[in-house]
Amino acid sequence: MRLKNIFPAVAVLLLFSLKISAQNTISRKLWYNKPALAWTEALPLGNGKLGAMVFGGVEKDVVQLNESTLWSGGPVKENVNPASVSFLPQIREALLAKNDFTKANILSRKMQGYYTQSYLPMGEITISQDFKGRGYKDYRRELDLSTATVETSYTSGGVKFVKKSFISAPDNVMVIHLTSNKKGAIALNIGTRSLLKATVKGQGGTELLVSGKAPSNVDPSYYNPKGRRPVIYADSSGCSGMRFQFRVRAVCTDGKTVIKGDSVLQIKKASEVVLYIAGATSFNGFNRCPESKGKDESLIASNIISRSVQRGFKKIYQGHIADYTKYFSRVNLQLNDTSLRNANAVLPTDIRLKNYTHGAYDPKFESLYFDFGRYLLISSSRPGGPPANLQGIWNNELRAPWSSNYTININTQMNYWPAETTNLSEMHQPLLDWIKSLSITGKETARGFYGARGWTAHHNSDIWALSNPVGDFGAGDPSWANWGMSGDWLSRHLFEHYQFTGDKKFLKEYAYPIMKGAAEFSLDWLVDDGTGHLVTAPSTSPENKFFDASGRQQSVCFGSTMDMSIIRDLFRNILKTCEILNIDKAFADTVRNTYNRLHPLQLGKDERILEWYKDYPETDLHHRHVSHLYGLYPASEITPQIDSFYNGAKKTLEKRGDEGTGWSKAWKVNWWARLQDGDHAYKLLRDLLHYTDASKIGGVVGGTYANLFDAHPPFQIDGNFALTAGIAEMLVQSHQDFIQLLPALPQAWKSGPVSGLKARGAFELNILWNAHQLKSATFKSLKGNKCIIQSKIPLRLNSSGKVSAKIGDHYQISFDTVTGKIYQLIRL
Length: 828
What we know:
This protein is of the alpha+beta class and 828 residues long. It has 3 domains: 10-21 and 750-827, no CATH class; 42-71 and 118-328, putative glycoside hydrolase family protein from bacillus halodurans (Beta-galactosidase, Chain A, domain 5); 89-104 and 425-657, Glycosyltransferase (Alpha/alpha barrel), CATH 1.50.10. A 9-stranded antiparallel beta sheet has the order 2-7-8-9-10-19-16-13-12.
């Protein structure tokens, strides 16, 4: 947006003031009437560092633990494939001079390095009770999104038991508070285990201490060559994996605690028990060996436990609530149920999801899902920690699907699409910090693999900021392994953070140097296609393939639409940054001159946007990736002002179809929102909220598990985050030079208020609509900028009376955000 910062931050009323009703606590709870049997039924807790899946069992409860820095391996090696750069000219000759895609594919495999390392589970805690065969009743377990607390309650033998669990960010500790309404009724056996090499030791009669070591290498679950060990604990390089530790300390108001067999913590005749759980690793940065230069994980965990016991349950819980709610309460979306009654609202969440799958009208369930997405981001991504990975912070497998790593050809970026729009800029920070680490390793990759300046990254990465093409030196399919535009795409997040916050210091001192490095790589990476245009070579359209003239499947080409769209986007953001900061004119001139020579967007013979340089036929018409629509979303190259490409994007999506994996459907929600087709976006939303049974192999592709985790399948958290962003995109858009209110409002959302959404230019918005008509909106300018407002449904203006209009009429209002004066009203 072209916004001029001329006034201090103020709150301004544009239309009528908006009053949001008190939050409905029922609508902000996931609840169930039985314990979880599967991991995808358990309820997630997290503080960005410590993560837990709470099963809520009775006779035996399980709490599965993760720590966000617990990964296999160590810092990436340098100069891993010194021969790589010699193959680049051969590939370019094969592509540009001979159109020999097969040879380019074979040679691309020679330009690969190591696979990434894997995100690992820390362990489990089991809490066992013996009810002597009495059984239990009145069972309920719930996750309260408004307090980030899991509570399990049940009655056995006339005694009511309650377990309240949460993970505090200020104290970095998990707390489980157990109570009974009869004195001395609590009797527990607490045990631990880990899938990693670990030992268990009891100490002081009240604490279990689990110490272990992560492997030095864990291969991806899909990579199983004959004769190779997929998990290795020893490493000849001298860095054999990080250490970890977690502790469980019990504090009782009465009763007795003892250690049995050095591995079981036994509690008898207690009325109230507080379990304090802490975890830590020796991780000390992406470039330091966690074994020889690691942190003291034992000291960290011990200090957390000691401090927590001293502070006590009440103070920790109060601090947790204050910290969490200051983020979560910023946004409130209430999609009102306009039916006579909403019987679904009182049902257990899994039953509610099943009913929704079969067509139930339940807009408050859609609000709940939106809240759950924001909850997951707050819980899995906090300043000072690593970014949310493919499963956020939750993983229970030694060899997790796709290593639970950072898949940076779409999935990691997708995790952070809702960060700015849903008013969680702080949760964006871990990704922004990690991008800097990636730019450091990426500089070595750019030089060593391609002989280029700047920095680059490819399809996968990890906590060690691995940036080379993966594939174990030839085993990876170049259709995904060799794609090298991740650095440019991730740079968009740096500029987006500035656009939503208006933080010029961040833009100048942090973001721009990294963005410039990515641009320098692209300047060196581009080559002339023989017609005067500049293209990437080699190039792929991530994970997709085409048929060449001989009918053979190919993936390596030059000038794919996604590559060129990402580079154009980066170059535009570089030029905007140089103009905003009034810096680096010479570099801006170079970027501008290069931008003007970039191979442009193209339409095919059927008026769809081309995916590749030429109109090659796709091998899969309904492929889950639709990467060539990057310019529609997340970028802003394709807009209604460019009718041919805007219509081409629509035709592309129509041809691709609505089917796809979880994250694919969620991306399509955002695309249809940008196309301002709210009903189609809503259809995909409903498709994604389709109950998926984790115990059944096959079935629906792209759905939702009982605990509302996204079913890729298997679980990937990016679908949760992207759909959350998509809902926000249906309500507010600001990617053009104005803010659009309710641009993709579906017929199903007849009325509702939303408060706290963010728009580019540092604006915070409250909106109220009823019967599909905009009733009021409040804009808060955080930086005193001017802006232009557009809505395609009727407006009532407080300074100029009522405006008569029909649904579908467009109005564009330009106003001064300090005085509130409207100085332009245009009917479009």
